[in-house]
Amino acid sequence: MSHETYMKEALIQAESALAEGDFPVGCVIVLKDTIISMGRRENASVHGVNEIDHAEINALKQIDYPGTDPRRKDMILYSTMEPCLMCFAAILLSGIRHIVYAYEDAMGGGTSCDRTHLSPLYRTPEIVIVPGVMRDESLSLFKQFFLSPGNRYWKGSYLEDYTLSATYQKT
User: Fold this and answer.
1) What is the DSSP string of 52-103?
2) Out of 4, 42, 56, 82, which one is annotated catalytic?
3) pLDDT tens digits, the chain, 171 residues: what are they?
4) d(C-alpha 31, C-alpha 9), whole Å
5) Does 20 participate in catalysis according to the annotation?
6) pTM for the complete prediction?
């Protein structure tokens, strides 16, 4: 299966978050062409801000494989937005070595951080990061979110400004 197949599933999770008035991030984790876990952003806007319930964290909590299970290195995490530093660290600690994301997090993305200066726990050299898969579809959800009159989450932030001025890549 292609990256687009699984990113479409992550986008469904993001659409569900958006429908609830939440930040439109969705995530799925795949092992050998099977979705084993899903999550979406929760509690970012509706019931007071909670900065722990990120889509990636919610998906990671559902993985039913022990942390030492060698299959974790074969898992692929798909997210509609580049994982933040917290989520990126949790993904590394979980043993997942392949991340695919749609829309770049210009304000808080963690995947481009220089891990060479971090402690050994976070310097896993064999991580693969694939950005921009179905970026336009994800960008559309974020634009809808930021243009929503009821939204207060990250209102006036660099991320809002970046997103609302971002252009679509497909013609």
Assistant:
1) S--HHHHHHTT--S-TT-GGGGGEEEEEEE--BHHHHHHHHHHT--EEEEEE
2) 56
3) 799 999 999 999 999 999 998 999 999 999 999 999 999 998 877 666 778 899 999 999 999 776 667 788 899 999 999 999 999 999 998 889 999 999 999 999 999 888 888 888 777 768 899 999 999 999 999 999 999 988 888 888 999 999 999 999 875
4) 14
5) no
6) 0.93
